[in-house]
Design goal:
The chain has a single domain, classed as Rhodanese-like domain (Oxidized Rhodanese, domain 1, 3-Layer(aba) Sandwich). Helix content is 45%, strand content 11%. Helix 3 links the parallel strand 2 and strand 3.
Length: 143
């Protein structure tokens, strides 16, 4: 029997993928290089790490990151809960940055937030924390 939560996860991923494939990124939604992210962090733009706690523990996190898991280990999510927590960090018209392991999840989520929910200044770190670390940029232990 197909579990309804799995269907919901697959459906959301399908919607995210279709948004990502069929729409152009606007000027205020985009991929950031490590240097561009550093510039925004220097302006106190919030950085939201959407990975899971086991991922934070494995690699560490960028200092000052807000830890707000989007998908669990099975690919499930609670959109309403996540958006409620996001709203405590940044509103629809505030700048914020998303970061994940490789940039794939945050690329899809940032486009979804922009195109479907009206967030106007969402960014994500291209190639994620893996590239951040590979480039010699610092991380700290997740708390």
């Amino acid at each position: 029997m197909f579990h309804i939560k799995k269907f919901t996860s697959f459906f959301f991923i399908f919607v995210l993928a279709s948004v990502f494939i069929t729409t152009k990124a606007s000027a205020e939604v985009g991929q950031l290089s490590n240097e561009q992210m550093k510039e925004l962090l220097a302006q106190n733009v919030p950085l939201i790490d959407i990975r899971r706690p086991d991922e934070w523990k494995s690699t560490g996190v960028v200092s000052g990151s807000k830890l707000l898991t989007f998908f669990d280990a099975r690919g499930n999510y609670d959109m309403e809960k996540w958006l409620t927590e996001l709203d405590k960090i940044a509103g629809k018209n505030d700048k914020f940055i998303l970061i994940c392991r490789s940039g794939n999840r945050t690329g899809q989520i940032s486009n979804f937030l922009d195109k479907k929910l009206g967030y106007t200044q969402v960014y994500h770190l291209q190639k994620g924390i893996k590239n951040w670390i590979r480039s010699g940029d610092k991380v700290v232990t997740a708390k």
